[in-house]
Amino acid sequence: MTDIERYLRAASRENTRRSYRAAIEHFEVSWGGFLPATAESVARYLAAYAGQLSVNTLKIRLSALAQWHNSQGFADPTRSPLVRQTLKGIRAVHPQREKQAEPLQLRDLEQVAITLQQQAEQAIPAADRPMLLRARRDAALLLLGFWRGFRSDELCRLQVEDLRIELGAGMTLYLHRSKTDRDNLGREYQVPALRRLCPVQACQEWLSCSGLQHGPLFRRIDRWGHLAESPLHSNSMITLLRQVLQRAGIDAQRYSSHSLRRGFASWATANGWDLKALMTYVGWKDMKSALRYVETYGQWQGLSLQEAAALTVLPEPPN
After folding, report:
1. In terms of CB atoms within 10 Å, which of 121, 257, 299, 318 comes out highest?
2. What are 205-211's contacts with CB under 8 Å, separation 24+?
3. How many angstroms separate the CA atoms of 100 and 28, rounded?
4. Distance between CA atoms of 84 and 78, rounded to whole angstroms?
């Protein structure tokens, strides 16, 4: 691999490259299309899978085809009026409600935190290092993911050397890149120290327990309590989250890895954060994206704002 090829590869996300490769293979192998493609063939491809694949999936397939044609120096057939009108018609004929993860409720988060603390306390006298490590790691992962609204891939990308912890005050961490950071400029995040369900304390306990001083913050732990050198994979987050919730006696099937992000967005909205403050804190640049995560007060029925405030103390919403 040449230096130019290495830099070109680094300019795109691995998940995007994998998705695009699968899309091109589906167009050529599964459907039997030819590349370079014409606008007519792309329109026929869309029509063949209308109603079978979601509009969002079809749009990803179009993006992959567009990228292939542009990179090979061919005219992009996906930009033609025929393809655009075909997709518009599919959206009208096959309307679909977008599936969204249910926001993690604060009471469920607290129940999980209590269960994990109990597991840690049981593991210490029993000298059960694997149990202790998992309890500390999972608590840090869930509390940090919730209160900072991190995506799965962002949690997996965090590095120990990029954390600065001040117990009782807060924590600063640096994320080298994220989904919305197209130019890979990186961003520094402030994490509040809370009275309860504190992500700062949870991260400190995880670091003290694991002895980690550099490398990925969140890693796989084997049955003997050995830590992997590589980070957790973002695709494993849904399974991990649901396992932790189930052990706490919570119905986990309605939750996914996005539930942490949506849970915080709903909590913040219910506690008076305006949309601009929430976008600044979480890192959303597009208002439409932010609105997809924000729930109404109805999602927080059974938990008054006074009860929510009693659980934690967050700083005022950013200006």
Report:
1. 257
2. 205/120, 205/136, 205/139, 205/140, 206/136, 206/137, 206/139, 206/140, 207/160, 207/163, 207/165, 209/132, 209/133, 209/136, 210/133, 210/136, 210/137
3. 31
4. 7
Structure tokens at 260: 């942490």
Length of the chain (residues): 319
Q: What is the pLDDT of residues 94-136, one digit of tens each?
A: 887 666 678 888 889 999 999 999 999 999 999 999 999 999 9
Report whether CATH 1.20.1250.20 matches the domain 3-93: no
| Domain ranges across the chain | 3-93, 106-311
How far apart CA 5 and CA 33 sit, in angstroms, is 27
Beta strands (DSSP E) in 219-304 are 219-221, 227-231
Three-state secondary structure call for residue 312: coil
58 touches 13 (CB < 8 A): no
Distance in Å from the first CA to the final CA of the chain: 47
Q: Is the pTM here over 0.90, yes or no?
A: no
CATH architecture of the domain with residue range 106-311: Orthogonal Bundle (1.10)
